[in-house]
Amino acid sequence: MHRPRLKHGPDLVQRRAELAIVLPVHGHVALAGRSLDRVGSFIGVLLVVVGLALVVGGAELFFDGLLATAARIGLSAFVLTVVVSGFELENLAAGIAGNLKGLGNAAAGTFLGGTTFLALGVAGLGAAIAPIRAALPDAVLLWAAVAPLPLLALGLDGDLSRLDGILLLAWASIAIGGIAYAGRAQLGDELPAQRKHSILRMLGGLAVLSGAGVALGDGLHRVVTSFGISQSLLGNTAVAASVEIEEVGRVAVPTRHGRGDIALGNVFGTIAHFAAFNAGVIAIVRPIHLDAASRHLHLPVAAASVLLLVALTGRRRELGRLEGTVLLTAYAGYVAAAITVSR
Fold this sequence. Notes:
Elements: H1 10-73, H2 77-85, H3 89-100, H4 104-129, E1 132-133, H5 138-146, H6 149-155, E2 159-160, H7 162-182, H8 198-225, H9 231-244, H10 247-256, H11 260-285, E3 288-289, H12 292-316, E4 318-319, H13 321-342
Antiparallel strand pairs: 1-4, 2-3
């Protein structure tokens, strides 16, 4: 069989020239990729900084508008916080989008990992910044403790069906209403001097906080994904935390103004929204099959974290820096366990 031989002379020179051109081009592509990664990380850090600034401003505006609105309509600020503040479209939208794309366990992470982050991370960080003092009625703590239990019971078989979603939606109205009704007598000593446009200021604060959540979420996502974190781990820890990081502002600002009841009302109300309302809506959109990590780790930890928060809150009717440290340590342990399970 005749095989063509590579000719010497001009052909060989041309081939060597092509190799000399191609190899540097691939090198430049690799360098360009690394440069893009660095740019993405820099943009991520910048977004985190901008998001944190928006959190501070938005939380102040929301808190001021919340008190003024409550005073104007004659409703407890605690009740308004439980009902309004916990309804977070960005978390719900993230869960629905992930579920529609077939990423059921990542979608479940928005309400499972989100609940855990609220109970341990947000409450822990808030207490570490300043002690959260609030003599909440026992009934509030009881409703908060049982809020995630139906989700735990329905998810133990590994599936969240549309029927389960309907049951969770029904439970959401009961749990959120129970927390709000039990704390209806919580009243503050001070009312804001300015009551004009109170509803607009409250909604404006929510809008700013939502924008802050988007900026922080995108920034943290850019930074975290540069380290190659798995989808399951990303959904239950990084995504859940990045979407809800602005909650720290909603806890810290009322605490600084002496309204620990509003700070905890925000946490308990949002937990009930996540573990019942959001979980129900996401399951109705598309049933979720929970994998082993979600069933054996993320689901039970979500319920247990709320029980731990309630127990620490009820012990002295406050969350001091010691309790905050306990909560943050527990969250660090959860993240470590999630990393180990994902390997």
